[in-house]
Every structure is written in structure tokens, then in C-alpha cells.
Write a structure and sequence with these properties.
The chain has 154 residues and is mainly alpha-helical. Helix content is 74%, strand content 0%. The protein has helices spanning 2-8, 12-25, 30-42, 46-59, 64-76, 80-93, 97-109, 113-124, 129-142. Helix 1 (2-8) runs antiparallel to helix 2 (12-25) and helix 2 runs antiparallel to helix 3 (30-42). The longest helix has 14 residues, at 12-25. The protein starts with a helix and ends in a 12-residue tail after the last helix. The model is unreliable at 136-154 (pLDDT under 50).
Length: 154
């Protein structure tokens, strides 16, 4: 929990150290693997993020966040087919706005414009689209635009 709190206030180095210790203490803990993957992704260690996200998925196959995180890492690596599969698995477990927008971003990048529009519409259905998009823009700004490629469709 301390690692999550540190990450939430942009103290990524400290959070990363906490998550590494958690994985060292119990490498079979899917939550610890997922948290380390997320911290590595934020630290731009995409290879490490993908590795630990795969471990999180293997340990907790019904965790939609782990699948979404794996998809994000794979997308940044340019492994779009695998990323799409990871996002679709996340959505099959639990439909969620984050996986829909990430899926749409990859579809947009691969020229699947109709699918991207459909998934953005699903993500924003029942919401005012501008606050949703502004939320993502704010997220990008807080993270130093490190994830800009993931949200190219916005």
C-alpha cells in the first residue's frame, strides 16, 4: 500500500523500490508483480514492465488490470497484435474504460479507425466525452507525456 501511495504522489523511485522489495519477498504474489510492472512502466522500463505484467497475468489470470498493463507495455513495444489480445482479455474479464481506450489507441495506430471509433464511443457512452478526454490529457501531463504514443487518437 505504501508503494501505491508513493506512486500516487509521483514519488516513483521510492515506489519502485517498495514494489521490488514486495516481489523479492513473494515472487508468487500477482498483485506485487502487477504493481512492479506498473511502476516500471511509469519509469519507462517497458521491457521490465512487460516481463512483470506477464508474470502478474500468469499468477492472476482473472486480473483485468494485469492484462491491461501487459497490453500497454506490448503496445509501446510495437507488438500490436499481442497488445490487442491483452486488452480484449481484460475486457472479457471485466469491461472497463481504461482497456477500451487503450484498445482504441492501438487500433488507431494500426489503421483500424472504425474499430477505434467504436471503442472510444463505448468508453464514453453515458459520459460527456470531453471530461473523459481531458482526464486522459491531464494524466499525460502529470506523467510528463510519457504515454503520449498510447493516446495518439486523442
Amino acid at each position: 500500500r505504501l508503494g501505491m501511495a508513493l506512486a500516487s504522489i509521483d514519488q516513483y523511485d521510492e515506489a519502485l523500490a517498495m514494489f521490488r522489495r514486495a516481489v523479492e519477498a513473494d515472487p508468487r504474489d500477482g498483485d506485487a508483480q502487477r504493481n512492479l510492472a506498473a511502476a516500471l512502466f511509469d519509469a519507462r522500463d517497458i521491457e521490465g514492465a512487460a516481463l512483470h505484467a506477464r508474470q502478474a497475468v500468469a499468477l492472476s489470470p482473472e486480473d483485468p488490470v494485469a492484462h491491461d498493463l501487459l497490453g500497454r507495455a506490448l503496445a509501446v513495444q510495437g507488438r500490436f497484435d499481442e497488445a490487442i489480445s491483452a486488452f480484449e482479455r481484460s475486457l472479457a474479464i471485466k469491461p472497463n474504460y481504461r482497456a477500451l481506450t487503450n484498445l482504441a489507441a492501438v487500433e488507431y495506430q494500426t489503421g483500424e479507425y472504425a474499430e477505434a471509433v467504436e471503442h472510444i464511443e463505448q468508453a464514453t457512452r453515458g459520459r460527456d466525452a470531453w471530461p473523459v478526454i481531458e482526464c486522459e490529457v491531464d494524466h499525460l501531463a502529470r506523467r510528463g507525456a510519457r504515454h503520449k504514443a498510447m493516446f495518439a487518437c486523442f
